[in-house]
User: Fold these one by one.
Assistant:
Number 1:
Amino acid sequence: MEAIETRYRTHTCGQLRLSDQGKTISLAGWVHNYRDYGGMVFIDLRDRDGITQLVFTPEGVGADAINLARKLRSEWVISATGVVADRGVDDKGKSLENPKLATGKIEIRVKSFAVLSESPTPPFLPDDREQINEERRLQYRYIDLRRPTMQDTLRTRHRVTRIMRDYLGDLGFWEIETPFLTKSTPEGARDFIVPARLVPGSFYALPQSPQLFKQLLMVGGCDKYMQIVRCFRDEDPRADRQAEFTQLDVEMAFIDRENIISIIEGLLRRIWKEVLNVEIPNPIPHIEYDDAMKLYGSDRPDLRYGMKLHDVTDLAHTTDFGVFKNAPMVKAICVPGGAKLTRKETDALAEWAKGFGAKGLAVTKVAGGAFDTGIAKFVASIAPQLIERTGAKDGDLLCFAADRSKIVHKVLGELRLKMARDLQMTPTQEFAWTWVVNFPLFEWDEEEKRFNSTHHPFTAPLDEDLAKFDSTDRATIESIKSKAYDIVVNGSEIGGGSIRIHRMDVQQKLFALLGIDSESQKLKFGFLLDALHYGAPPHGGIALGLDRLVMILRGINNIRDVIAFPKTQSGADLMCGSPSVVDEKQLRETHIRVALPPAKPA
């Protein structure tokens, strides 16, 4: 990358090559390391683009300046002017080139330099070889950001956002900003709320997504909208989720599902090609939601591995094994090579399964064309049929879940991923892509005894299922499919969207099925219903999670490593010290009184 020439530098530390030999140049950056050989001082100077070796000699910088050069230490900031030279060979004729550096064939013979700022010994060095506790890295994030891997990740993130803007801009999308201070609406997660000082007792909410605003932009005739936007959800963080995150938001008018899918596939193909030089399928295959659950136990299936779920309910019900005989559903997965697991390890799997609501996990090993250990004696009568149906071979492990379909699918879906990790299975491909389509529109909440939206309450049903809105039969309503779609790669959902409801009467019926009465509809969504009343075009869109997308491109497992200034697992910013207490004056101005929960007994 070329530098913008300033009084501190003419080039970056990753820019110069042997073709620049003889040029007088200036560099600026951080001292990466230093070596004092008595008469000569060698400094590796680092900036975000790379490292260049500087050579200080008494002849080059003068007798007084060489003493200053000997005082340079790690993370001091300096600028230096000198001549680009070939590193050449040593006195034995061996090349002094450093093949690990892009600038490894050259060095800078320094003529003058200046110390721009000094640094005490830092809490850690920004070197990839250092193994630093994450809390310490986040506390000193400004040092952690100097690490080459962090710089490469932020560079990748920048490249991805630039590609997004260029690609969609060429297709006629406008980037339009939407409000951060908005109205609290039920979208599935808990809102962050902000007190409104000028309206005592009232609050704004930070947006979980720009969902309603991008729909209103379509009603407003903007036709093609995009935005790289921050979103906020007051949820517990996890490895691939933060309370504040970034997404690419896209919405279009006068389209159907295939139009959205085609545009997003084109964008993803360009990103993967330009960033990784990898081709992705054209087109990306689709899988029905029902098939994804049936075969993989997940609506974001990782297709790099086999281990499909096999329904063995009919066979299981012929046994005298009560766990199987009385279960509404019994499914199995075959774990290749899983027979090498010890009894202790398979017993631990049963305990692990309880964390997903199961009563346990039944297992047996395949040996000699029959079953051995575990529940072998209970399923001996159906061994040939089970082996044939699951494709099990000697040395494999069969794992069974018996319960309601929701629990069976959850347990075996998670078990597939766990076994792939624990047994270090080799994936069949580097990137396995699929669109998951035709999600159910509603999910039944057993505790609340009511329906919830599977995606969000603005998702349109399939045209052929629209008549079912008038039914009062729970099974009929549960069978309604939606025009929703998720894009999944390697078992990670990197985006999801839908065709929206553009008719006011349909939107009102959906709200009613969710238990939102007409008064609550007006209170919470009156502005949307009014907008739909005044002529809304058919429209739909999608949101791609930028953080997750960069994680996959960089092969990173923790979302905190792709965000410049992230929060910890508990939502804390260790560098700034937030969240924090505010003073009484601020509380009075916003008309808030803090009521702390009672202290827990010691």
Number 2:
Amino acid sequence: MGFERLCMALQGKTSNYDTDVFQPLIKAIASIAKTEYGKNIQQDIAMRVIADHIRTIAFSITDGQLPSNAKAGYVIRRILRRAVRYGYTFLNQKQAFMYELIPVLIDSMGEAYPELIAQKGLIEKVIKEEEESFLRTLETGIRLLDKTFADAKAAGKTEISGKDAFTLYDTFGFPLDLTELILRENGMTVNNEEFDAEMQQQKQRARNAASVETGDWTILKEGTSDFVGYDYTEYETSILRYRQVKQKNQTLYQIVLDNTPFYAESGGQVGDTGVLINEFETIEVIDTKKENNLPIHITKKLPEHLQAPMMACVDTDKRASCAANHSATHLLDEALREVLGEHVEQKGSLVTPDSLRFDFSHFQKVTDEEIRKVEHLVNAKIRANIPLTEHRDIPIEEAKELGAIALFGEKYGDRVRVIQFGSSIEFCGGIHVAATGSIGMVKIISESSVAAGVRRIEAYSGVRVEELLDTIQDTLSDLKALFNNTPDLGTAIRKFIEENSGLKKQIEDYMKEKESSIKERLLRNVQDINGMKVIKLCAPLPIEVVKNIAFQLRGEITENLFFVAGTIDHEKPMLTVMLSDNLVASGLKAGNLVKEAAKLIQGGGGGQPHFATAGGKNIDGLNAAIEKVIELARS
């Protein structure tokens, strides 16, 4: 009957929500919302929804499933957003609040689920960020939905179009079920067929952008494909089957071999490249993928002699670089848990010959000091040259007894492979170095956020670290040369910055004096044309200076001001017009004037009715453009 219903029966209640499973949460929600459970049916429903959903969300995050826009992560995001919307609409919660319920949930369930206690910080951080993110768009979305169904009701309709519902989904992240829920509360429905049609069109656009034509398999002989790449980088083989694939006007071939040393992309590690060689020709393998657990070798052409035996040869340099980076991710994983805490969990990785990327659960930015500690721990293990201990094809229970760490979301069979470097023990099917010393060195080059509660580290190993250090050294040498090879570069740069700031301040003061001087001169040369106080300026001045002068003049001449300037800034002609409010009210528009006159400087522009600018290419046309502005105003 389920845990909640069993509690209801034992406690003599008529609702799951009246049991001690939910009541602590509901009371906490009521306290936050400054209301009382049992007084208002809509508020009661909202509190029950939130109490139920916060459990689902918290347990899912604890199990490693974070909110996202794909698959299971999208289900969690939808559940969370539904709860946020109930709090927003019925409990007047305009700020994030659900994350505050986690301590209450831990009081109730922490003993049975100690993972909640261990990952409390991560759960709170993820939920708070998701709440705040959705609240930023919720108000706008609800306002648009309110207007949509108000317009429909005014037209005598009880249904809104699927196109409007799709816009809410696509632009504001409103799932269709949330839109339907809000509409149902207002006696409305949505045209689901139109929504499905819009969704189908979007999917079709996505398919067209990445369309692939895949031919049928041509089977040369029956048999299975065995991976021998843990032990060999070259192996005699033959083709089992092949097919043609067309994508983005490119023709490729997929080949399945009976035995292959090529590692197929999986577990974050990219696929091997290399060559297939027979006595007649050499075929380049540009990538190796996995499809239905089958290694697929991708080539640009087929061998002419398909039945001939061949040697499959992996690019060993790329393989070695990949292996170093993959082993480095294992050391990084362990070091991060040691420095940041046991809540750290791998959320994804990418291992290439050039670099490694490692995503992990953590609720705040990793500090520079923490990054350095992680690097030092990893590099100490590299210097220790810890040999690889490979537990290949062992029972999964035996792997767990070893303390092997499993990647959440990965499916493991009854028998698994475990990679061990000392105290680093993980389930893994990838390629690794024989000993950590082969990694050379690891240098973290960036740390960033990729999702709520998920951080990303990017790093180099081996030769790439040497290249990075060479670049840093060259940069430092160049900088020192710019400062006469001073031994204390930091002090020299700080002194230069301070001197530069001082000179910049002097220039700003000079420009203010110059602005004031130009303005006073212009005020002495005001012309009266058709009742307008016309002020003309033609000089090589920065546009910011001209703009400042224009607004200062507008502040001093409040009526009939007509200011036009033709200036040169960075060897380009600029046209500026400023008008007083009464001239704008009389029908003059600065934007229209500069747009027309800018043709004489081979340019264009526009702006507001009282102030507009235009840029061009022809400096010689500036004077004519100024006169054109005045002529247009006069007429």
Number 3:
Amino acid sequence: MKSSPHAAARAGKFPFLRFYFAIQSYLQEDSVTPFHVKRQRCVLTLYGGLVTALTIASYAVPSAFVPALLGTMFPGAGFLHWAAGDQFAIATVLFLAGLGLFMMALVLWFATGNLIAPLLIWTILAAVSSAPNLFSLSSTQAASGWPSLLAPFAVIGLGLAVLHPIKPPRAQSVVVLPEPKNSDAAELSLEELQRLRLLLDRALQPVERFDGFEWRDQFQSAAVRYQVNFVAYALALARHRTAPAADAYYYEAQQRLLTKIGDRRMWSYWRLENAWGNFRLDADPIPHQNIMYPGFTALQMAIGGTGNDLILHDKGREWRRYDLAAITGRLAQQYVTAPYGLLACEPNWIYPLCNLITMTGLKAADAHTGAGHWPRLAEVFLRSLDREGTKADGSFIAFRSALTGIAPPTPGGIVMQSFPCLFLNSLAPDLAEAHWQRIRAKLDKENWPRLFWPADIGNYGVSRATSYTATAAAAAEMGDTEIADECLRRLEMECPSHLDHGVIHRERASLWAHALEIAARSTRRNGWRDLVAHSRSESGPRLAQASYPEVLIARAQAEGNKLHLVLYPGRSDGTQSIEFSGLMPEQRYRTGQEGEPVLTADRAGHATLRVVLHGRTALTIKPLA
């Protein structure tokens, strides 16, 4: 693959980058070696060459310049130049403190995409180490030989570049399996409806309010935008499985969630990330290297079923507008030119999970726009996912630095392997099944508390809530009810449910975890895959309006000209009005209520019914013979 046009453009501005990409081009001639290995070879070759050059220079320049050269070789190493005599200890402490500061900058780079931080700290440390008087160090006491001691980094770097082990490529093929057919709608129990209400309460509040959402930060996994995304996903899945013939408050909830995701507070983070990660000043989160916003939102739009545009707004004023086709078209074009075959979730960091969610969004959008992005991208994407996003044993990496090609050790435990299956099953069911079997083998043999880390990624709390619920959702999608049930059982033991005014919640669980629990309880085998492939039809009778929370919809399924409903009172028993659409104009219908009241549709196929709700209330709306 070739370097992206964006990389080439940046290389044109900076001579060092031109040299960098020239070496990279030289090292990547073969088509077998994964791109991340080529990138690592390039980085290590440059670093080895830099250290070698600086080591030689250190013996030719005045000693006053040696600390700066040492500090350029390695963060904070300039202080070691003064590690002699009675100031050895303080110089060593300064070196370790500088190194610690640099490590903090690396964490900031990972957490927020801030590439400037580590570069700036490295530069500052090299500069200040040349001024020993700032730290009460004597310039007359200097240690010699440090450049020679650091020089082995060059040898190690070059050795790693040449001897880097390469994962043998696995044969990849796109197996086109028939999409599952819609199964008969299930029915939500009263308890499940009470759990669903926690999501609906947050979705149906005024669009400018975010009561019940958890504000921790806007850069990592607890960002509010992810909470909005996953609440929308869970509601879409619950509706698709149990109430495909209901618009009612489901439609309104998706509309409001789409408006919320366009709130400036959801996307303003990108102005900072784009500036300090990409050196760009554009605040628009859609166009470039940021799939955590457009990719996740594309999936929300595609399965939400509203057909509305994404409007980026600030205090009610429209700033940018994108329809689903525009967002997915931009994403698809970026995939075509991506050197890794995968896109960065944030500046210069590639997450396989984010790419699976984004590509699922493209496939879901295909069902509505007919663009056909997934068939065109599938082969290269799946091959890239294997080569760049997995380890030698087939397990997923958590993330990879796009700049260096390096993938740190995978944190998070089993959820980092199980959760991707929920989305992979929509794209490549055969690969998802093979991956799930590896997960199942671990779950059968290893210690669960050790596999499920006690860290809730939705709010950074100490609990296994997201680990259990994400794994349960994936297990249910893969048809592994045993694992799904066990995850939910353990969740209840560690984070007990509480019923409060008709709403069930878990005090220690994040909103992410609550949404994933609804997904786990709503889906069945291939349920998510079916939703992604589903093109919504408006034909047949539908439940158009029902007051929330007075009316809770446990089931709404159309069968020809019939409509099967199961409703519950959300607050107290009583009479409520519900509205229908999609009826045959001026046709009379039976309702199945006591006394057999007759419902008559108007010329537009609409009708209103007063229904008495008392516990579980089943109705069948069918034409009179």
Number 4:
Amino acid sequence: MSETTTPGNNVPSDLEIARQAVIKPIEEIAAAAGINSDALELYGPYKAKIDPAKLTAAADAAAGVPGRPGRTPGRVVLVSAMSPTPAGEGKSTLTVGLADSLARAGHRVMVALREPSLGPILGMKGGATGGGYSQVLPMDQINLHFTGDFHAITSANNALMALVDNHIFQGNELNIDPRRMTFKRVLDMNDRSLREVVIGLGGPAQGIPRQDGFDITVASEIMAVFCLATDLDDLRERLGRITFGYTYDRRPVTVADLGVQGALTLLLKEAIKPNLVQTIAGTPALVHGGPFANIAHGCNSLIATQTARSIADIVVTEAGFGADLGAEKYMDIKARMADVAPSAVVIVATVRALKMHGGVVKDRLKEPDVEALAAGVANLQRHIRNVEKFGITPVVAINKFATDTAEELDWLLQWCAAENVQAAVADVWGRGGGGDGGDELAAKVAAAMDTPRSFRHLYPLDMSVEDKIRTIVQEVYGADGVDFSVPALKRLAEIEKNGWSGMPVCMAKTQYSFSDDASLLGAPKGFIIHVRDLIPKTGAGFIVALTGAVMTMPGLPKVPAAMRMDVDAAGNPVGLT
């Protein structure tokens, strides 16, 4: 489901609220934000792409803000969360609600979010546009095909693999070893049957048979490249650096060796432009890019973040899942590659989820239980301490649910005060849309932005890959150590040999636990992280460490969310959450 408070029988659903909202023409949203019409490319009445190269200083002057050349870029507020549970934490909802509340307080604000993936929408998680009265609109279009960015990324990825297999079929001038391919085809869908496949069957005319497989589109390195590129030239260069396999004599082969980086850039030239939409309250929002944080780096596109910073004074963005995943990757990967270090960090927590981390089963979370809350708060504490290791003291946003008791909320606020952490209860699901549900949180975040900080990364790039992984595992996850499989140890040697050890690490790990075992909730101790393989992403510029049983192609649950979806007689969506 969406990261929202679950509505009761008399409360409208997220879809109903979105349908009832008064949505403005996107030209009005753009004009109010100071975006000149020349930079706007309309995709219907309520969404548009922005061409960053066409943003002009004249538009700034017309909007009454300093000219863009030489203008101090807007500051970034990063929204993260405690470890997610099926109870829901509402990170996307809080991100949108906080932005609306900061705008209500008089700040020039823009939201920067990731695009939803169809796989989890039709599977178990649901949409990713916020919830209640803190949503980005048009909710149904954003959650489904939107402006076609994911289709473009899927096409570019699969075009590469078609060109690779054709090269092998046509004589294999590059001496590519079909047994040592490290790049897969992708599909924006949860489909476990495609994890392992054999292609090229049917005789000589059908290609060279080899074992292959599919990842979900959001796990594609092209998605990562797309989200870390600064412009078209950088996109082309990064695409060219992608290593897709090895030769028979174990030398890496890149897209540039194949000579097709230009064609892939051509397929992505429109998609790379950020998408402009709006919140229910009319706050401008850029929704662009969408790597998962459990199997990729979990942040919206760098181009969108930088475009938003050129327009607004405050950019509220989110990093996927808990702070051990998305936030760590934002700090050590995205903020290392560009000047987007956050001025404030928000950690979203809920009484419900903390009680679940304290041992309460999901169907009893509505019952008051301060004792379970006290047991589960260790999870939040570890996330707070982890963010502090980057030189920033976070603000805790307590996302209020209707079942929370005053006693539980007061206890949590007092606990935060004892931890010397600012905290506020926010009801942006029910009182968002420009209401006062996030006013106290917005005030605390605004104050935090003006608090002195000393941002730092968790590890230096000249540290060995093994030690980088060990640092993350011990400092962030709280593990005793790390165990590398035999294939992972071989890959470590290969990475060192090829000169790739200077890249940051992107951990692929379950989002539900600090460990690589999804069942270990709370703040577990005495465990080991098991790294089963390492995949150098030479175009994106990081090394993925695969741990535990995390899958780069998820499967669907027993009862997929798609089972309740439909379209009514008027063509309106039904059952989309």
